Amino acid sequence: MRETLTTLGRYRILGLIGEGGMGLVYRCRALDSEVYEAQGGDVAIKLLHRHLALNQGIRDRFAREAELGMRLSHPGIVRVHAIIDEGDAPAMVMELVEGQPLSALAKPLNDPSTWDILQQVGAALEAVHAAGIVHRDRSEEHTSELQSRIGSR
């Protein structure tokens, strides 16, 4: 049974966005209005599952992912704002991106919007690789439609 959380660090939990193999993702709001404004509004916080947090290697990998995310700046990459490591499991504070996963679009490859999205994903991966990072967890679920963030080309 999962306990009901109301806060994570200095953030109030507004609701659960989703759950994956590594953890839970919540929509949150900074309790400090200056932090709220600086981060551009609500954020997404990824909380590592407790059973995974017991493994120091996984905790270290999670922290490295957050630290690398804080170094990247590209319109097609979710910005990581901070790491919270207070309590049983670490959490990553990230930019909140509203949109649909690619799997929800289900358009044929000959659709022009499909190619536009693929070019945007490719540009984001190119920025990641240019920073010396190898992204190993690439999936449709991790790719939101980028057109609202980057704009149509």
Task: Name some characteristics of this structure.
153 residues, single chain, 6-stranded antiparallel sheet, 35% helix
Report on the architecture of this protein:
The protein is of the alpha+beta class. It has helices at residues 33-38, 50-53, 56-71, 102-105, 112-130, 147-150; strands spanning 7-8, 11-19, 23-30, 43-48, 80-84, 91-95. It contains six helices and six strands; from the N terminus they run βββαβααββααα. A six-stranded antiparallel beta sheet has the order 1-2-3-4-6-5.
- Shape type: globular
What's the Cα radius of gyration?
16 Å
Portion in beta strands: 15-25%
The secondary structure category is: alpha+beta
- Which bin fits the share of residues in helices? 25-40%
Q: Mean pLDDT, nearest integer?
A: 82
Q: What's the N-to-C terminus distance?
A: 47 Å
In short:
By secondary structure, the protein is an alpha+beta fold.
How do the helices and strands line up, and which of them pair or pack?
Blueprint: E1 7-8, E2 11-19, E3 23-30, H1 33-38, E4 43-48, H2 50-53, H3 56-71, E5 80-84, E6 91-95, H4 102-105, H5 112-130, H6 147-150
Antiparallel strand pairs: 1-2, 2-3, 3-4, 4-6, 5-6
